[in-house]
From TrEMBL:
GO terms for cellular component: apoplast. InterPro entries: Cu-oxidase-like_N, Cu-oxidase_2nd, Cu-oxidase_C, Cu-oxidase_fam, Cu_oxidase_CS, Cu_oxidase_Cu_BS, Cupredoxin, CuRO_1_LCC. Lignin degradation and detoxification of lignin-derived products. NCBIfam families: laccase. Transmembrane segments: none annotated. Its cofactor is Cu cation. This is Laccase. Its EC number is 1.10.3.2. It holds the Pfam family Cu-oxidase.
Length: 551
């Protein structure tokens, strides 16, 4: 591979959406941010210079970061933030991945405006295991607040209540024609008939899983989270925050007498208020520029709209997830761990914590919203976990007793326990190098069942099983798929159900795992794995780069 250099200047920029102008934090004044393009095997160097008042870190979501954990990016996990006026060079090599990923800020809620695509092309002279596309188009979903998202989350954390929902979803930063004062801010995909387009879909929204569909066109799913899958056709797809999906769009053989809307809106389970609006873009067949006569009629063309499923269509969500299978060919094998060294059972869900004295809290029954894994609501330290781990200075920063099982067993579909209170702590799980891990994540009904897109840094995992109700350790493993399960970095834990994943801890470092609904991360639905070095030189994490920011 070759080395590719990028320079990301973090600076403010005035941007107008929905007739509201505000100053937002951007990379190089672009919104959404610039695209990173590289081939599998390339080294990528991104120099990030912070020219704003906020502390910044950037994360290369889904990049495996094999022995390059210092470049992973989550604030206070792998690094201290880049402070005003400082710079840091993220340096990593793309290994064994091809498809679409994305980058985003990984501190507070700054990823609401700091995000952009990462396009990973196959190695030079390697081809796709599907029709060569005529064109490739990244489509990145986001959320727009008319107010400052940093104020939205800080107010929610202070009052203990839920944050204000966004004012719009966006496609490539544009809300589209279904919102007031937004028709001119519409993403247009101009296509020719009889061609195959590769759409690189990315959900960079903060708090909602999304259904996506294009009127009168079906989509062929070929890759998720930068891993090829067995191709299948679908009218509608589901994409959770943190997930990426490559689809082929085959255009109609002849110019149709219509234009087509593409649209995305949430899949929502569980409680709370949410933005139930719809973002849309336009798919337009572009006539050759020589045909002037037919041009005028294009304005009169019918606009066809897709039918999106109801907001709570769990059947569709489940069936879509079940259709995803690894390609599992000789060239692209699915290396599913067949044996397990350590088993973990994590409950994930919302709970609450006591309201501090002299405060009125707007959470359930006057408490504060909290979220937890095995009842631990993870607290970020004020230095970085990875440094503490690497230099053997865990004391006072974190403890290694993260519970491998819930503190109290109960019926996760039934009556919630009386005490919903969570413990705030900074606990990690320590894994010896190359441990084969099986992790079952069970959605609890402590404060209403809700699906959670769980994201693991530093690894891909195989989704070997999923189901509704209580996971049964005696019965359910018998039906695990150990042949061609989908391999990815973010999986939806079904509402009121469970998901089982397997991965090999072959990447030394400290790796964050969290719900990619940003509000749940803010409330504590996060934890970290500390993977020890192996014995061989190429199984060790190298020392930190000299420009690694200090706290
Ligand atoms: Cu896309 Cu830890 O995040």
């Amino acid at each position: 591979g070759i080395t590719r250099h990028y320079k990301f200047d973090i600076k403010l920029k005035n941007v107008t959406r929905l007739c509201h102008t505000k100053s937002i934090v951007t990379v190089n004044g672009q919104f959404p941010g610039p695209r990173i393009v590289a081939r599998e095997g390339d080294r990528v160097l991104i120099k990030v210079v912070n020219q704003v008042q906020n502390n910044i870190t950037l994360h290369w979501h889904g990049i495996r970061q094999l022995r390059s954990g210092w470049a992973d990016g989550p604030a206070y996990v792998t690094q201290c933030p880049i402070q005003t006026g400082q710079a840091y060079v993220y340096n990593f090599t793309i290994t064994g991945q091809r498809g679409t990923l994305f980058w985003h800020a990984h501190i507070s809620w700054l990823r609401s405006t700091l995000y952009g695509p990462v396009v990973i092309l196959p190695k030079r002279n390697a081809s796709y295991p599907f029709t060569k596309p005529y064109k490739e188009v990244p489509i990145i979903f986001g959320e727009w607040w008319n107010t400052d998202p940093e104020a939205v989350i800080s107010q929610a954390l202070q009052t203990g209540g839920g944050p204000n929902v966004s004012d719009a979803y966006t496609i490539n930063g544009l809300p589209g024609p279904l919102y007031n004062c937004s028709a001119k801010d519409t993403f247009k995909l101009k296509v020719k008939p009889g061609k195959t387009y590769l759409l690189r879909l990315i959900n960079a929204a903060l708090n909602d899983e999304l259904f996506f569909s294009i009127a009168n066109h079906s989509l062929t799913v070929v890759d998720v989270d930068a891993v090829y899958v067995k191709p299948f056709d679908t009218e509608t797809l589901l994409i959770t925050p943190g997930q990426t999906t490559n689809v082929l769009l085959k255009t109609k053989p002849h110019y149709p007498n219509a234009t087509f809307l593409m649209a995305a809106r949430p899949y929502v389970t569980g409680l709370g208020t949410f933005d139930n609006s719809t973002t849309a873009g336009i798919l337009e067949y572009q006539l050759p520029s020589t045909t002037t006569t037919t041009r005028s009629s294009s304005a009169a063309k019918k606009l066809l709209k897709p039918t999106l499923p109801p907001l709570n269509d769990t059947t569709l969500a489940t069936n879509f997830a079940k259709r995803l299978r690894s390609l599992a060919t000789a060239q692209f094998p699915a290396n599913v761990p067949q044996t397990v060294d350590r088993r973990f059972f994590f409950t994930v869900g919302l709970g609450s914590s006591p309201c501090p004295q002299n405060q009125t809290c707007q959470g359930p029954n006057g408490t504060k919203f909290s979220a937890s894994i095995n009842n631990v609501s993870f607290a970020l330290p004020n230095t970085a976990l990875l440094q503490a781990h690497f230099f053997g200075q865990a004391k006072g920063v974190y403890t290694t007793d993260f519970p491998t099982n819930p503190p109290f067993p109960f019926n996760y579909t039934g009556t919630p326990p009386n005490n919903t209170f969570v413990n705030n702590a900074t606990k990690v799980v320590v894994l010896p190098f190359n441990t084969s891990v099986e992790l079952v994540m069970q959605d609890t009904s402590i404060l209403g069942a809700e699906s959670h897109p769980l994201h693991l840094h530093g690894f891909n995992f195989f989704v070997v099983g999923q189901g509704f109700g209580n996971f049964d350790p005696n019965k359910d493993p018998a039906s695990f798929n150990l042949v061609d399960p989908v391999e990815r970095n973010t999986v939806g834990v079904p509402s009121g159900g469970w998901v089982a994943i397997r991965f090999i801890a072959d990447n030394p470092g400290v790796w964050f795992m969290h719900c990619h609904l940003e509000v749940h991360t803010s409330w504590g639905l996060k934890m970290a794995w500390a993977v020890m070095d192996g014995k061989l030189p190429n199984q060790k994490l190298p020392p930190p780069p000299s420009d690694l920011p200090k706290c």
